[in-house]
Amino acid sequence: MRKKILSILMVLLLTLALVACGGGSKPDNGGNGDIPPVDGGGDGNGGDENGGGEDEVPPVGRPTEIVIMHGAVHEVDPRNKDFSGRERAARIQLHEEVEKELNVKIVYKPYPANAPWGPAREEAIINWHISGNKQADIYWLTTIWLGQIVNAEAIVPVDKWLSTHGKNIDDSFLDATTLHGQTWGMGPERLTGERGLFYNTALLEDLDLEDPVELWNAGEWTWDRFETYAVEAKNKISEGQHVLGSYPSVYAESLIPLNGGAIVDLETQRVSFAASPASETYTYLEGLYSRGLFETSPSYDSGSDAWGNGDVLFHPGNLWFVRADNRWGEFEFIQEGNIGVVPFPLPEGKTKDDYRIPLGGEAVYTIASNPNDRDKEELAFEVWNRIQLWETEQALGEIFEDSLRKTFDDEKFVDVYMGIYDKVYFDIHEELGIGTYSGSAWQSKVNQGVRDGTTRQKVMEVLDTYNNALDRYLGNDNSEE
Q1: What dotted CATH number matches 64-187+361-390?
Q2: How many Å is the Cα radius of gyration of the chain?
Q3: Rounded to the nearest 5°, which phi and psi values hold at 419?
Q4: What's 195-357+409-474's CATH class?
Q5: Where residue 437 falls among pLDDT bands split at 50, 70, 90?
Q6: Cβ distance 147 to 367 under 8 Å?
Q7: What are the domain boundaries of the chain?
Q8: CA–CA separation, 77 and 234 (whole Å)
Q9: Would you place residue 266 in the very low, low, confident or very high pLDDT band (cuts 50, 70, 90)?
Q10: Do 64-187+361-390 and 195-357+409-474 share a fold?
């Protein structure tokens, strides 16, 4: 009996020892007994979804979600299945490293249907802030809406973080988003000038005209030479064809700065479209129009039917128009590679060193105002900066050059544009809240005035409108409106 009791005691002691030492079967998932996060939950972002190593310790607490709201998520989210950007693997790795180090979850979200591109998106961002229901920590938006969104306090300035997390942000973005003496936005690369005077190379060849790029390279692409050139082209074209496409105001936007002026100058904070450099430009455009050089049924950036059908020689535009399906990419002459570009002509006495390309309506990232968690504002700024693949100035130039090679078939167009792409300045006339197509827009007055030779008088009709809009933009509005 005693031996039986002793045997039972030995079995009990052995069982207790095994339990105390953690013996028995492993968890069903094959894990190593990892201690779960303090909050008892998690969404898998803090650990290794492939099983993890024995040395890994999950972070304490659920990761903080940082939401980046963008109009084209597939262009910027490397983990999106339709990602169209470059260096996907490196970007994914960077995102994962930042998520682990800062215990965050980076989420890209598209703007909802009730916040489409345009004034509706500006209004939505402001209303989200007013209602205390912001939809993201970082908003991708255009500088056209910046003034209203800043004045509504829906985003916050980033100046106090620039010396720590934001050292890599290019000055072009800082300059483009400066308002009320503070900086409100950023971008991952640098702003480049993308406006140019495009031309149909097949039509040019049919008309047996001199190469505009050769004239530019020789320093002969001046206002006088351009007018002579355009008249020569007009004398050779067939019925239904035109020399100059689009509206006169689109040419004025690029020609005024070449003549030493501006439309609405951010640096001087003045409306300048009635000053002498602008007035001289209007006179020049009136002369071109009086010679019958402009097409009769123009359109803005998407181009008219005549341009799309290959019946217009020159057309102003932006580089991205060339291959975009919703701009010029579907035109037959574009698909056949018959598209070239040349800088706009320079006034007599100006040189290539005087060339300037206006910037405006630029896409930038901003930090949403978060009154309930100011620390998260800085965290969002840090996260955004750390997930960028910051390139050297030389590398950025090479990237831009590669994009030009994807746009043009002839290397000479790449070379000519590389000579001007960084000669930029910021003009804020598009940022003042006056629609391009409205009756009170500077553009509308220019287009009316160039047709009948009264441009100077016409733009004076809206000078006060723009001065008041500039005051509102700058936060200096003392009117009773």
Answers
A1: 3.40.190.10
A2: 30
A3: -80, -10
A4: alpha beta
A5: confident
A6: no
A7: 64-187+361-390, 195-357+409-474
A8: 48
A9: confident
A10: yes
291 alpha carbon, distance to own chain's centre: 37
Task: Give the type of residue at 236.
Answer: K
Distances from the Cα of 46 to the Cαs of 77, 93, 106, in angstroms? 19, 15, 12
Look up residue 36 and give its two tokens: 């779960």
pTM: 0.80
Q: Over 50: is that where the pLDDT of 7 sits?
A: no
